[in-house]
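Example record

The entry below shows one chain as it appears in the dataset: sequence first, then structure tokens.
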Amino acid sequence: MSIDTFMRARSRRRVASARRALDYADADSETAGESWGRAQMIEAGLPIPRLQHTFFDQDGTFVARTDYDWQGRLAGEFDGMEKYQKHLRDGESPFDAMKREKEREDDLRRMGVMVVRWTWADLEAGRVVGMILEWLDLLGLAAA
């Protein structure tokens, strides 16, 4: 195969990939990692989650806004490094941000919402679908 033929074939594959990705596009996915995770969920046939869902406690107090949500019982969070490096609150260290995330997750669990988290490495290794499916099955949401 000539280099020209190879490059044309590779270009066609990239165009096909981009077109397929556009089919899954949703403006509520706030980062590339969130979009990639959602695409993996759709490709695997998982139930489609709500994006950027807001949770309130019994008193109506804001608890959390999650990247993904399945029926208010399972929340999914893509953990890019931005929240621990670029988007720190004034005077906050990366440790403080991590502690705040842990407390937020504990608040969700107290409300009966399980939280599953993944990173770029999980996306790259193809582990995200299995991580989510395990909890969808345990919570009886897999056929949702």
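Notes for this example: The first helix runs from residue 3 to 23. The chain has a mean pLDDT of 82.
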